[in-house]
Specification:
Layout lengths: L1 E4 L2 E4 L3 H19 L4 H49 L4 H16 L7 E3 L3 E5 L4 E11 L10 E11 L5 E8 L9 H16 L12 E8 L8 H6 L5
Parallel strand pairs: 7-8
Antiparallel strand pairs: 1-2, 3-5, 4-5, 5-6
Helix pairs in contact: 2-3
């Protein structure tokens, strides 16, 4: 129903409508003050960085393990190349041999997500050293949520292929105990192999005095021969 008061039309609002309006306002206030579900919401917001940090830790550990394997492979490859240089091989041969060793060692185990370049050898002729480097990348898994797709690393190794001056003295036990179980025979074989390995190969361009070997045998005492007096300044007994 409508009435007039001073030219203004008034509309009577039914009481039931007023009650609904009060209930609606009360509902909005209750919703604003309701703290239920806050923990779930905060957890949902934190789950991504938590997974990212934990995933990076796992991926970093995997990469560290892979780096140790690659380091071992590079060390072996550089040593193989160094041996080839000592045998008089050229740089092309040593480069190929180094990469063959490197690839062969890496292929012996799981390389999931690991990619490496070939070994690059650097020849330092002044110091007769050989350096090898390889760059690798390890694909990540859980770190992808943080936008980290891979972890890169580089390993290197060095060795000396020039042996310089080498002096070795062999002291052989020829006492009575060496007469059993083919010990003396095995000693002779080992001595020959050692000499063949240590002495320069035929056609060696260096100084013949680069490698000097000495051999001394002993039973209960060492026979120093004519050098005894020169060393001790005493006459042999």
């Amino acid at each position: 129903m409508a009435g007039e008061l001073g030219g203004t039309h008034l509309t009577q609002i039914p009481a039931v409508w007023m009650g609904q309006r009060v209930k609606m306002n009360t509902g909005h206030l209750n919703f604003a003050r309701n703290e239920k579900g806050n923990v779930a919401m905060i957890a949902a917001l934190c789950i991504i960085p938590i997974v990212g940090i934990a995933g990076f830790a796992i991926d970093f550990q995997v990469t560290t393990t892979q780096k140790a394997r690659v380091q071992q492979a590079v060390d072996s490859a550089v040593l193989a190349a160094t041996k080839s240089m000592q045998d008089g091989k050229d740089q092309a041969y040593t480069q190929k041999e180094a990469n063959d060793y490197f690839t062969g060692i890496l292929n012996q185990s799981n390389n999931s997500g690991l990619t490496c370049t070939k070994i690059t050898l650097i020849y330092l002729e002044e110091t007769e050293e050989l350096e090898g480097k390889a760059s690798c990348e390890q694909k990540t898994t859980l770190s992808n949520v943080m936008g980290i797709k891979k972890l890169d690393f580089t390993v290197s190794s060095a060795a000396t292929y020039g042996i310089g001056k080498l002096e070795i003295a062999f002291v052989f036990d020829v006492s009575g105990s060496m007469g059993s179980n083919n010990r003396m025979t095995n000693l002779k074989v080992a001595a020959r192999e050692a000499v063949d390995t240590l002495l320069p190969v035929d056609g060696y361009a260096g100084d013949p005095e680069d490698v000097r070997l000495a051999m001394v045998s002993y039973d209960t005492m060492v026979n120093a021969g004519p050098h005894f007096k020169a060393v001790t300044n005493k006459d042999p007994v």
